C-alpha cells in the first residue's frame, strides 16, 4: 500500500517537475521566438496573422546608418570596457580573496555597487560628476558626452561581473597547487601564469562574457553619457521606436540576440559556463 | 642530495609557539621521520624547511647554504603534499616535467628524465593521462616522481600515505623506502602513524607541543625513552607513580619497593613496557623485582593477551603475554606473580598523575 503510494508520489513528482520546466522554458523562449518571427513579417504594421514573409527588414536595418553606427559603437565599447574591466577586475578579485586588509569589506561592496544602483541613478551621478570635473578643470577636460566618459561608465558596469565571477572561481581554487608550483621552482609570476590563471580561467571568461553583455545591452546609464551624433545600439533602437514601430526593430533585436548567443556558445566551447555561474 | 640542518628553529603565532627551538641534523641520504600527535608542529617544521612558512627565529641549512631567508622557489626541495597537489590541467608527463622546465633543462634531456622518473614509480605507461584519470595510489606516485625528477637536495613528505587505504599504504610505504634507499635521498617525512614511522625511518623525531622530545632510532626510543611523553607515545607503557628513595629504589604510592636504575631522588614515575612484564604462577627466584598481584581484567587481542594486574590498591601494571594453547593462561581474579628486570623499566623524575608534557624540559 505504502509502496504503491510512494510510487505514485514519485510519478506525480516527475510529471510536476517536467511541467514546471516546460512552463519556464516557454516563458523564456516565447518572447525570443516571437521577436524572431516578427522580424520576418512582410508587412510594415505588425499585425496578426502575417500577410507573408521576407528578409526585407534585415536589408532595411543594414541600410540604416544609425543602426550600423550604433552597433559598431556598442561592440567597440563592450570590447574595450571588458578589456579594461579584466585588467582591473582580476587583480582586484585576487587581492580581495588573498589578503586581509582594513577596508576589505568596504572595497568588496564598492566593487559590487554598480550592479545594484539603478542605471538611471548611475548615469545621473556620472553626468553630474563629468560636469563638475569639466568646471573644476576650467574646460581643459572635455569629458561631457565624450567617448572616454562613456567608456568609463561602461567599465563600471563590467567590473562587478568580472570581480564576482573571478572571486567565485578563486574560492574553489586549491592553493596548495600554487605551493606545489613554487616548490618546483616557479616564482610568483610564473605560478600565477602557469597554475592560477588556468585554474580560474572559467571564471575569468564567464565574467568577461557577462560583462560584455551587460555593457552591450546597457541603455539607461548610456543615455546620460552619449554625445550628439554618437549613439549606442540600444539608444538607436529607442530613438527609432519613438516615431515608428515596424519589424525592422525586431530584426535589430535578432541581430543582438544572435551576437550575444554566439558569444555564449563560443565561450561555452572553452569553459563550461554552467560550472561557474 | 645534501645534509639538512635545523638550528633552534621556531615559529610563533602571537604568543603561541607552533614550533619551538627545533634542532635537527639529517645526514646525507638519511630517512628521518617526524612523529607526534596532531597539532604538535610537524607540518609547521616541514613547511619551514620547504620555505612556505617564515621562521620567527632559527636557521635552516641545506648542504653548505643557509636557506632560511630564501623563497620557496629558490630552495631545491621536493615536497610531496598530503593531497598530492597535481596540476589538474596538465598531463602526468607535464606535471613531472614542471620542475625541470623551471630549471630550464633542455627538452630532450627533460623528456628522458621524466620517462625515467615515471618508470621508477612504475607509471611509464600513463604519461599522457590527466591526474583525474588516475587512482589515488597512482596520483601519489606521480607526486613522488614530480618531486624527485629534478634531484632535490632533500625530499619532504607530509603524511604522504594518509589518503590511501590500508593495503595500498603498505605497498607505497615499501615503494617509498625502496626509492629512498636506491637513490640515497635525504628525506624528512611527517606522520602521526607510529607503525609507519617505525617501519620506514632510519631515525625518528618525537615532537609534542612544538618541541622535539627525543631523536633516535626505533630501538633508542623504545628502550630508552627520554621522558614520560615518549614512553607513552612510542609503543605502550603502563606507569607506576611514586618516589625514588635512593637512585636504586623506587617506592610506589602503594608502598611497593621496586629496584631500578634512577639518577636522582624525589618524586618520580616508572614506565613499564607491557611485553617486558613477566607473569608467572609462582614467585621467580633471583628476579630483580617480583610482586604478587591479582588479575583484574583480561583483554583478548588475538595472538596476544593483555592482563591488567593489580599489585596494590594504588598500583596497576599491564602485562602482555602470547596467546598459547598450552602453558600458563591466567583468568580474571587469579592470583599471579609479576616480575621485571631493572633494565626494562624507565624512571622519570618529577611527579604527575598523568604525564603532563608542558612542565618537562626540552629533550
Ligand atoms: N597560521 C596559523 N596561525 C595560528 N596557529 C597556527 C597556524 N598554523 C598552525 N597553527 C597551529 O600550530 C600548531 C602546529 O600545527 P601543525 O600544522 O604543524 O601540526 P601538525 O603536527 O602537522 O598536526 P597534524 O598531525 O594534525 O597535521 C597547531 O596547534 C596549529 O593550530
Ligand atoms: Mg600536519
Provide the β-strand percentage band of chain B: 25-35%
CATH-level-4 superfamily name of the largest domain in chain B:
P-loop containing nucleotide triphosphate hydrolases
Rg of chain A to the nearest angstrom?
A: 24 Å
Main sheet summary of chain A: none
Strand content of chain A: under 5%
Order of helices and strands of chain A: HHHHHHHHHHHH
Mean pLDDT of chain B: 89
Strand order across the biggest sheet of chain B? Answer: 6-7-8-3-9-10
What assembly state would you assign to the polypeptide chains in this entry? heterodimer
User: Largest sheet of chain B at a glance?
Assistant: 6 strands, mixed
Instruction: Determine the fraction of residues in helical runs of chain A and give it as a percent range.
Output: over 70%
CATH architecture of the largest domain in chain B: 3-Layer(aba) Sandwich
Describe the structure.
The complex is a heterodimer of chains A (277) and B (363). Chain A is mainly alpha-helical. Chain A has a single domain, classed as MetI-like fold (Orthogonal Bundle). Chain A is built from twelve helices and no strands. Chain A has helices spanning 2-39, 56-63, 65-98, 104-116, 119-136, 147-171, 176-183, 188-216, 220-225, 233-241, 247-270, 273-276. The model of chain A has no long low-confidence stretch (mean pLDDT 86). With 363 residues, chain B is α+β, with helices and mostly antiparallel strands. Chain B folds into two domains: 4-223, Rossmann fold (3-Layer(aba) Sandwich), CATH 3.40.50; 240-358, Nucleic acid-binding proteins (OB fold (Dihydrolipoamide Acetyltransferase, E2P), Beta Barrel). In chain B, 23% of the residues lie in helices and 35% in strands. Chain B is built from eight helices and 20 strands. Chain B has helices at residues 42-50, 92-102, 107-120, 136-148, 166-182, 194-200, 218-223, 228-233, and strands at residues 4-13, 16-26, 31-35, 57-62, 65-66, 77-80, 154-158, 187-191, 203-208, 211-216, 238-246, 249-252, 257-259, 266-272, 278-280, 289-300, 304-312, 315-322, 335-340, 345-349. Chain B has a six-stranded mixed beta sheet, sandwiched between helices. In chain B, α2 (92-102) packs across α3 (107-120), α2 runs parallel beside α4 (136-148) and α3 (107-120) crosses α4. In chain B, 40% of the residues are buried. Chain A binds chain B through residues 174, 176-177, 179-187, 190-191, 194-195, 198-199, and chain B through 50-52, 71-74, 77-79, 81, 83, 85-89, 98-99, 102-103, 146-147, 150. The complex binds adenosine-5'-triphosphate (ATP) and magnesium ion. Adenosine-5'-triphosphate is lined by residues 13, 18, 36, 38-44, 192 of chain B.
Amino acid at each position: 500500500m505504502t509502496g504503491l503510494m510512494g510510487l505514485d508520489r514519485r510519478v506525480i513528482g516527475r510529471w510536476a517537475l517536467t511541467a514546471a520546466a516546460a512552463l519556464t522554458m516557454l516563458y523564456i523562449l516565447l518572447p525570443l521566438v516571437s521577436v524572431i518571427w516578427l522580424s520576418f513579417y512582410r508587412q510594415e504594421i505588425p499585425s496578426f496573422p502575417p500577410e507573408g514573409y521576407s528578409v526585407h527588414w534585415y536589408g532595411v536595418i543594414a541600410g540604416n546608418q544609425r543602426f550600423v553606427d550604433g552597433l559598431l559603437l556598442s561592440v567597440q565599447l563592450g570590447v574595450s570596457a571588458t578589456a579594461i574591466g579584466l585588467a582591473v577586475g582580476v587583480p582586484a578579485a585576487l587581492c580581495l580573496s588573498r589578503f586581509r586588509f582594513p577596508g576589505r569589506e568596504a572595497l568588496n561592496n564598492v566593487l559590487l555597487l554598480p550592479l545594484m544602483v539603478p542605471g538611471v541613478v548611475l548615469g545621473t551621478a556620472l553626468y553630474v560628476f563629468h560636469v563638475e570635473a569639466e568646471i573644476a578643470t576650467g574646460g581643459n577636460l572635455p569629458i561631457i558626452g565624450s567617448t572616454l566618459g562613456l567608456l568609463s561608465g561602461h567599465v563600471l558596469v563590467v567590473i562587478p561581473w568580472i570581480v564576482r565571477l573571478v572571486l567565485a572561481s578563486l574560492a574553489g581554487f586549491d592553493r596548495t597547487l600554487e605551493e606545489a608550483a613554487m616548490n618546483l621552482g616557479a616564482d610568483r609570476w610564473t605560478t600565477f601564469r602557469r597554475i592560477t590563471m588556468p585554474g580560474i580561467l572559467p571564471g575569468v571568461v564567464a565574467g568577461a562574457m557577462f560583462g560584455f553583455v551587460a555593457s552591450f545591452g546597457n541603455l539607461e546609464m548610456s543615455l546620460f553619457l552619449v554625445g550628439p551624433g554618437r549613439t549606442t545600439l540600444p539608444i538607436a533602437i529607442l530613438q527609432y521606436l519613438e516615431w515608428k514601430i515596424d519589424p525592422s526593430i525586431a530584426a535589430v533585436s535578432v541581430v543582438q540576440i544572435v551576437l550575444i548567443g554566439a558569444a555564449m556558445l563560443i565561450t561555452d566551447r572553452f569553459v563550461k559556463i554552467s560550472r561557474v555561474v | 642530495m645534501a645534509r639538512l640542518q635545523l638550528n633552534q628553529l621556531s615559529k610563533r603565532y602571537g604568543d603561541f609557539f607552533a614550533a619551538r627551538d627545533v634542532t635537527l641534523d639529517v645526514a646525507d641520504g638519511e630517512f628521518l621521520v617526524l612523529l607526534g600527535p596532531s597539532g604538535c608542529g610537524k607540518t609547521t617544521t616541514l613547511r619551514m624547511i620547504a620555505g612556505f612558512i617564515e621562521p620567527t627565529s632559527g636557521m635552516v641549512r641545506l648542504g653548505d647554504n643557509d636557506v632560511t631567508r630564501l623563497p620557496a622557489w629558490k630552495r631545491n626541495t621536493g615536497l610531496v603534499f598530503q593531497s598530492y597537489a597535481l596540476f589538474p590541467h596538465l598531463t602526468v608527463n607535464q606535471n613531472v616535467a614542471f620542475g625541470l622546465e623551471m630549471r630550464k633543462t633542455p627538452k630532450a634531456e627533460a623528456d628522458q628524465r621524466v620517462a625515467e622518473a615515471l618508470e621508477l614509480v612504475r607509471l611509464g605507461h600513463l604519461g599522457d593521462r590527466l591526474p583525474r584519470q588516475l587512482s589515488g595510489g597512482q596520483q601519489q606516485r606521480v607526486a613522488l616522481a614530480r618531486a624527485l625528477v629534478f634531484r632535490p637536495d632533500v625530499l619532504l613528505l607530509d603524511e604522504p600515505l594518509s589518503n590511501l587505504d590500508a593495503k595500498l599504504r603498505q605497498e607505497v610505504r615499501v615503494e617509498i623506502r625502496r626509492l629512498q634507499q636506491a637513490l640515497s635521498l635525504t628525506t624528512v617525512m611527517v606522520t602521526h602513524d607510529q607503525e609507519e614511522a617505525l617501519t620506514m625511518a632510519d631515525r625518528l623525531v618525537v615532537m609534542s607541543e612544538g618541541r622535539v622530545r627525543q631523536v633516535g632510532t626505533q630501538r633508542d626510543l623504545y628502550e630508552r625513552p627520554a621522558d614520560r611523553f615518549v614512553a607513552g607515545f612510542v609503543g605502550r607503557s603502563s606507569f607506576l607513580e611514586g618516589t625514588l628513595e635512593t637512585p636504586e629504589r623506587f617506592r610506589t604510592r602503594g608502598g611497593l619497593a621496586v629496584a631500578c636504575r634512577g639518577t636522582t631522588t624525589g618524586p618520580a614515575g616508572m614506565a613499564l613496557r607491557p611485553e617486558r612484564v613477566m607473569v608467572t604462577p609462582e614467585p621467580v627466584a633471583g628476579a630483580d623485582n617480583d610482586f604478587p598481584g591479582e588479575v583484574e581484567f583480561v583483554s583478548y587481542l588475538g595472538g596476544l593477551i593483555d592482563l591488567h594486574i593489580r599489585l596494590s590498591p594504588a598500583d596497576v601494571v599491564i602485562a602482555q603475554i602470547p596467546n598459547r594453547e598450552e602453558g600458563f593462561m591466567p583468568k580474571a581474579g587469579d592470583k599471579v606473580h609479576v616480575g621485571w628486570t631493572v633494565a626494562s623499566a624507565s624512571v622519570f623524575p618529577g611527579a604527575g598523575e598523568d604525564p603532563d608534557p608542558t612542565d618537562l624540559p626540552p629533550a
